[in-house]
Amino acid sequence: MTEQDLDTSYTSLCEAITRVGESRAPLFLAMLSLSLIARQSSAGDVLALIAQAEKNSAE
Amino acid sequence: MAETVAIPERVTVVIAGGGPVGLSLAALLAEYGIPSLTIEADDGYCTGSRAICMSRRSQEIMGWFGADAPLVEKGLGWTAGRSYFRDKEVLHFDMPHDPAQRFAPMVNIQQYYIEEYAHDATRRHPGLAQVSWSSRVLAVEPLADASRTGASRTNASRTGGVRVQVEVNGTPRWIEADWLIACDGGRSTVREAMGLQLKGMQYEGRYVIVDIEQESQRPVERLAWFDPPSNPGSTILMHRQPENVWRIDYQVGDDEDPAEAVRPENVLPRVQSHLDMIGETAPWKPLWISIYNAKCLSLESYRHGRILFAGDAAHLVPIFGVRGLNSGLDDAGNLAWKLAWVLRGGAPESILDTYSSERVHATRQNIAYGAKSTEFMAPPSYGFSLMRDAALRLGVTDPSVRSLVNPRQSSPISYEGSPLNRRDGLHQADAASAPGQPAAELMLQRNGLTRHLTQWFGRGFVVMGLDLDEGTFQQLQSMVATMTAPQGLPAPDVLQVNSSGTGSGEAWQAMHGGGRRYAAPQDGAIYVFRPDGYVLGRWAAADMERARQALAAFHLS
User: Fold this and answer.
1) 3 state DSSP class of B56
2) Which of B87, B88, B393, B406 to probe by mutation at the A interface, max A CB count within 10 Å?
3) Is the ipTM of this complex over 0.90?
């Protein structure tokens, strides 16, 4: 993805999260994650990303 | 300032506000032999460093009045930056060194030096640019505009204009001016006097700016910390300035009272805590403290008859885009040649409508760019805040998201859609050099001498013959020689460039592949640049007549 596309997607996501609000955000993000996962070519990459997010989100 | 000036009753140009934009405009007008009177409330240059990051274009514009040398000598150039999340570095960027460039992408320097260099430049034209210090504008009265009745091409029409009431050392008096340029800042008196309002929005997030003097061995880089242990929950930016000065910006909580936030007893401990964390242990002292929030505001038009607005008087853009003073100088650079052409009868007053439309267009681009940076530095809502947290935490281990943490790479302002742009006659060449685009820099060499294309700008129009055979170039030179500039204004320049960089003789060789941005395959090309370095038009060599017509609109031929 180009930097421009990454920026556009990121900004759009920020705005969507603000619109759905804090209480609905987990469900929204779960649904989005699922859409994106389903479009990856294999589980290998996805599992690595899950591990990274789990690790880096720890306090 | 010790100098006193006798103020005449009628002046050609009054500039309200002797800050960096006002003084630079006075200097630019003086280069064209246009006299001006600048009214400045303070008795000298600004105190406190305010704007500090000077872009490449600003350095070029200051070069138009000979101030680039002291700027580059004193300022601190930088190309790199680091961003930290908590205690880990998540990003280190280094803008690639472009060997064809004349100036560093950014130079840090205190605003009072910019004012000093611009003021020095005006003094090189004795009697032309006068500055009345300790003076302020009290009232503004536009005079009936007679110029619409057809006198628009007459030299310095004495009908129309503005009456300006100024107070000089406590004594009020009225002056008549042909033109009034409001460069009087965010709280512009002229704007208020005209009943005009900036429109747009502001962000909630507040930042304290504090300048401190402290020796340091750190390289000159843009430094940013998100949620650092020294100031949890805050964001901190640091920039180095000349004379051992650190600029430190830190975000304050939305619930903090701004008046309390700037008190030294609330500021200094936070600064100390951060300096301790990053290992800067040399003794230090505070110089200046202020507070700001990011603004996206603009007038709808920067021209109101004989009154024009420039700099913060016209627009306020978010600080994180570093385009506040830079866009103000760009305003001055766009305005000066147009006003000079109008005053010398070389263009109708309506060309100043293009000053407004082009610079309003630029402000929109600057605001969009600044808003992007602000969304990251001061997230405006829950979604931006959450995603920033995600980007920073992932960025520690995942390179693919780091560009989001980067201050957005800036692209130059384009005047796409401006009525001044000629129809593109060279579609096969790069769109980056189309009419309305700023001229991309070229490093040029000829007979062992090196010059940059941007060194030709800031005077008259510039004609570039690219990859022309000798006969065609001579034809071009003859054509340009028929163009007489309006009295007192610079004649057009013409230069011959070889885009491959490998030829010899009289043509300048474009080095480092820069010519590719202009060349049309299999064709010679003609480019005409405006005095402010923007592409007016471009054509195939066979269409020289169109280039002639484009030039003739601004010359007596």
Assistant:
1) helix
2) B393
3) yes
The two three-digit tokens of residue B362, written as one number? 């630029």
CB B46 within 8 A of CB B441: no
Tokens of A26: 């987990």
* Record: contact B382-A21, CB cut-off 8 A: yes
- Residue in B383, B396, B409 nearest the CB of A14: B383
Distance, CA of B420 to CA of B405 (rounded, Å): 38
- Of B425, B426, B457, B421, the closest CA to residue B436 belongs to B421
10-residue stretch averages of pLDDT, chain B, 557 residues long = 75 98 98 97 89 95 97 95 93 87 94 97 93 96 67 52 94 96 97 97 92 96 95 94 96 91 96 97 96 95 98 94 94 98 97 98 94 89 96 93 79 92 96 97 95 98 96 96 96 96 87 94 91 98 97 92
Q: Sketch out chain B's domains with CATH numbers.
A: 10-45+55-73+107-196+296-368 (3.50.50.60), 431-552 (3.40.30.120)
Residues pairing with B85 in the sheet: B88, B226
Q: Which residues are within 8 A (CB) of B551 and not within 5 positions of it... i.e. 6 or more apart? A: B461, B463, B480, B483, B492, B528, B557
Phi, psi of B469 (to 5 degrees): -75, 165
Residues of the domain holding A43: 3-56
Q: CA angle, corner B121, sides to B116 and B123, nearest 5?
A: 95
Number of domains in chain A: 1
Angstrom distance (rounded) from CA B507 to CA B501: 10
Is the CB of residue B483 less than 8 Å from the CB of residue B453? no
In degrees and rounded to multiples of 5, residue B361 shows phi and psi of -60, -40
Q: What is the least distance, in Å, from the CA of B403 to any CA of chain A? A: 7
How far apart CA B441 and CA B433 sit, in angstroms, is 11
Q: What is the reported pTM?
A: 0.94
A30-44: b or e for each residue (b if 16 or more CB lie within 10 Å)? Answer: eeeeeeeeeeeeeee
